[in-house]
Amino acid sequence: MRIAVIGSGYVGLVSAVCFAEIGHDVVSVDNDSAKIAALERGEVPIHEHHPPELLKRHRGGRLRFSTSIDKSVKDVDAVFITVGTPQSETGEADLSFVEAVAYEIAAAIERPTLIVEKSTVPVRTCDSLRKTLLLNGAKSGTFSVASNPEFLREGTAVLDFLYPDRIVVGVDDETSAKIMQEIYAPLTTGSYYSNKDAIKFDGPTAPKARIIVTNAKSAELIKHASNAFLAMKISFINAVANISEAVGADITQVCAGIGSDTRIGSKFLNAGIGYGGSCFPKDVQAFHAVAMQCGYDFGLLTEVMQINEEQRRRFLKKVRSALWTLRGKQLGVLGLAFKGDTDDIRESPAIAIIEALLKEGCSVKVFDPAATSRAKETLPQKGVTYANDPYDAATGSDALLILTEWKEFAQLDLAKLHAGLKYPIVLDGRNLYRPEQMAAAGLIYHSIGRASGVPEHMAGVLDRTHSGVDGTPVTSTRRQ
């Protein structure tokens, strides 16, 4: 089929290359001429696995680029809207970019066209989109509107698109349902997976992707409810981690026990410094705003957001307790992105913690495998230096903070790390190591929801029978 994808950001670019990969003729549209020129040269503006490969494979063939909505939508079967929906000052999703695109589409379409909202939008957006198209010149009967929410995780977005848990399609007429089913047929029939050149996935997958067809309002609600539920799981386990610290339990063991229940599952039960990124904070707030507009006080979402903010404050308290005073201290920091395998720093807990430390008079030496260039656009110049690798960040630092769960941060040479630090103190906001492992390496180790690890030779100062940071029990190498 012929498809236009408007917006070449994270969702738009991944969708465009993946639609081309499964056999459609795609035009990716963006009003940023510099970005379009870069894509035409084969340059990928996001840190993500597989888009460079797919761009190379389809650019100039099934995939082309344009800055003109007018020219791009005239002869296509479907238009996917993937522009940004940032959070407004009131907490609601700002739909002005979606509306602006609708204006242009209305003036351009000349043949029956399906307009699909793929951006994350609140319920009833399809109704507003349909109304806007009619008011701006689109003739009734020449278009239909559908919802197709995305469930892409940064770092694995292409695999999530091609090997989805489910494809949700929200339609209000049979014609739209038929078109959407045809678009995704290579995945739902399994024909794509038999292609020898298909992108491979090592995990467990069904031979055919599952498609769920709903009405438009249900599809819109599914997206916000899904993200809110995942954010709730993160905040819940962080609250449990705080109790674990207080009573001397181990949150890793608690998570294993909880996650083994198939009704609950182990995903998103990782205690840490809270969620961030471009989706969860914005979507939880937007969903809360939708509930308020409907006259329902969704207090549970309020608690989810408050726990997330509190988790960062609790980690800062750990840092203060471990170092006694902060002013004048140099801290090594590992991680800037909101999660591993991405360069995205939007709403990153790591960035928020660094900014708070700078305000308290610290200097920081930071390292991230992918997000440094983006962080330089956000963090102040004063007090921040950028390291070449994790060991460079640790060298001469009063303590080392682990703030992002990059895989390479979980495989460090602990002896080399210890040798570089001024004081052998590590505060791990992502629980990448076992306390006894760090203690055996001679490091004083503080994490989330677990006993602190203390080397045996320091047990007389921080004995396991006494409290460590934040009243956390202490474990030493003598317990092994």
Task: Write up what this structure looks like.
The protein is an alpha/beta fold. The protein folds into three domains: 2-214, NAD(P)-binding Rossmann-like Domain (Rossmann fold, 3-Layer(aba) Sandwich), CATH 3.40.50; 235-306, N-(1-d-carboxylethyl)-l-norvaline Dehydrogenase, domain 2, CATH 1.10.1040.10; 311-479, NAD(P)-binding Rossmann-like Domain (Rossmann fold), CATH 3.40.50.720. It has 18 helices and 16 strands.
Question: What is the residue-averaged pLDDT?
Answer: 93
Distance between the termini: 63 Å
Rg from Cα: 25 Å
Secondary-structure class: alpha/beta
Q: CATH superfamily membership of the largest domain, which one?
A: NAD(P)-binding Rossmann-like Domain
Stated plainly, the CATH topology of the largest domain is called Rossmann fold
Number of E strands = 16
Side-by-side strand order of the widest sheet? 3-2-1-4-5-6-7-8
Q: Helical stretch count?
A: 18
Sketch the major β-sheet.
8 strands, mixed
* Spatial shape: elongated
Keywords:
single chain; 480 residues; alpha/beta; Rossmann fold; N-(1-d-carboxylethyl)-l-norvaline Dehydrogenase, domain 2; 3 domains; eight-stranded mixed sheet; six-stranded parallel sheet; 18 helices; 40% helix; elongated
Layout of SSEs?
Elements: E1 2-6, H1 10-21, E2 25-29, H2 33-40, H3 51-58, E3 63-66, H4 69-72, E4 78-81, H5 96-108, E5 113-117, H6 125-135, E6 143-147, H7 157-162, E7 167-171, H8 174-183, H9 185-188, E8 211-214, H10 216-247, H11 251-259, H12 280-293, H13 299-323, E9 330-334, H14 349-359, E10 363-367, H15 372-376, E11 384-386, H16 390-394, E12 399-402, H17 414-420, E13 425-428, H18 435-440, E14 444-446, E15 452-454, E16 474-476
Parallel strand pairs: 1-2, 1-4, 2-3, 4-5, 5-6, 7-8, 9-10, 9-12, 10-11, 12-13, 13-14, 15-16
Antiparallel strand pairs: 6-7
Helix pairs in contact: 1-3, 5-6, 10-12, 10-13, 12-13, 13-14
